[in-house]
């Protein structure tokens, strides 16, 4: 038979220096590692009676002659904190001298406290003492505490009315729910309830606790929501934008600023965090508005965990302005920009940051799909600024995985682009430039069935693919980098593989320095494997298999330029002519290689070609 220890029903405070109780002493409770006798350091202390009822205590808390804590009426109590596990405690004797101090005391469960926690609302009301603002009552729902007040007004900011004669005011100590602030899964607009929870002076973690959808007009929290979080329970915890919208810019969650494009009238919150909530835009009605699920304008410390955003007329998420810092773990964004009668174009995410001094935008994972299916849809639209993306996974968008406009520097660890070809007749490229930019860095880039070419560069800037670039199929070339007059750039690709491309494996030209590093492989490309007339050409190791044209074709070189092929190997089956062709306009090309199944390895019409180890 198990032995059960019996504990004294009340805490005893002894004076260890004299072996007697601290009689008529004073007890102070405060923030850990501080002096709790200082009022500014004190925390809420509760007195728990034998019945389990609680009251709020003024400090100092008195002990009786037996060294047991008592309330102002002399009734015995145990002292509890309001959910604070680690705290500081000072015990003074009757003369006000310190008996002992512990800066890291630990709270523990008090006998009968669980009884109060399991009460229903009606039972709690029955146990409440009719003393305004004093008696604390815990209700069954774990994240709420109430105190009785004989009068109260339901003002949307934390007062819950139980009936016409009795009100219970919420004591907000951090974690609150939208439901407790009156949000419901009905057809009504919950904007007042949501903002009340976000702006309550004592809330810090606001929870969408239900697997349900709350409808709301645009949510624009102010600085009152700074250093707070809005979290849900997963995909089923959704908020849906409603209303007939006519403004130029709209967003469901608007982290804004005064005078921004989304109707901002005040600065949004700093250090605001969102997690495990789905933002839905397809219930809103509009014929003109550019709607985003989330719009972060001039954000400071905005961050998110895992979020979903879909059904918006333009973007799943847009980041713009003077971005101080924005970070996120996982963004899933789909079905945006699929109403071409309202707006042209659809984006999973758009980045238009004006910050070039540091990587202000950092997102670990983005998955974008079904955006702008017949409306020029793209996964990521990188317009300006500096950004880091861990993984970009895009598929089934209208035209492209990504577009680079005037970005100063975007760095992406891994890009997967699959079947971004849903807008019939549009051939922009799976990842393409649309303006002069600084630097695009990609670790690994995998492109499957692009519409048009895979990677397209037509503007000044630099692109580095540091690990690998694989292109399979497509209606254009694997890589197309033909710079028009007045444009200049650099293109570096490690381990390029281009298979079954309808034109070239890689085609380049203009004032471009192209470096194909590691192993470059082309197979079954309709025209040539590699065709280049770029100013500077460097190929470490080129392999070709059964391309329908030459594996390598250099029609001409440029004055002051250079062309080097370190090693070349080509196997021809369907195509038996020359494996490599150096045109009459070429000067001083360096070439080494061999072939099988071709009439010859090299057809050389150039001047000063250096042909080392040619077989």
Structure description:
This protein is mainly beta and 615 residues long. The chain is built from three helices and 49 strands. A hairpin with a 4-residue loop joins strand 1 and strand 2 (20-21). It starts with 13 loop residues before the first strand and ends with a strand. Residues 109-121 and 127-172 have low confidence and may be disordered.
Structural class of the helices, strands and pairings? mainly beta
Main sheet properties: 33 strands, parallel
The N- and C-terminal alpha carbons lie at a distance of 92 Å
> Low-confidence runs (pLDDT<50, min 5 residues)?
109-121, 127-172
In which range does the helix fraction lie?
Answer: under 10%
Q: Nearest-angstrom radius of gyration?
A: 34 Å
In total, how many beta strands? Answer: 49
Shape: elongated
Overall mean pLDDT score?
A: 86
The number of helical elements comes to 3
What is the strand content?
Answer: over 45%
Q: Which key terms come to mind for this protein?
A:
615 residues, mainly beta, 3 helices
What is the strand and helix layout of this fold?
Layout lengths: L13 E2 L4 E2 L4 E6 L13 E4 L5 E4 L3 E3 L5 E2 L7 E4 L4 E7 L5 E9 L6 H5 L3 H7 L7 E4 L6 E5 L9 E3 L5 E4 L4 E3 L13 H9 L5 E3 L5 E4 L12 E3 L6 E4 L2 E2 L3 E7 L17 E3 L1 E4 L4 E2 L3 E8 L2 E11 L4 E7 L3 E10 L11 E8 L7 E9 L7 E8 L1 E10 L4 E5 L4 E10 L12 E3 L5 E10 L6 E2 L4 E12 L6 E4 L5 E7 L1 E4 L6 E18 L6 E16 L6 E5 L5 E10 L8 E6 L3 E8 L5 E3 L5 E2 L4
Parallel strand pairs: 15-16, 16-18, 17-19, 18-22, 19-23, 20-24, 21-25, 22-26, 23-26, 25-27, 26-28, 27-29, 28-30, 29-31, 30-32, 31-33, 32-34, 33-35, 34-36, 35-37, 36-38, 37-39, 38-40, 38-41, 39-42, 40-42, 41-42, 42-43, 43-44, 43-45, 44-46, 45-47, 46-48, 47-49
Antiparallel strand pairs: 1-2, 3-6, 3-9, 4-5, 4-8, 5-11, 6-7, 9-10, 11-12, 12-14, 13-14
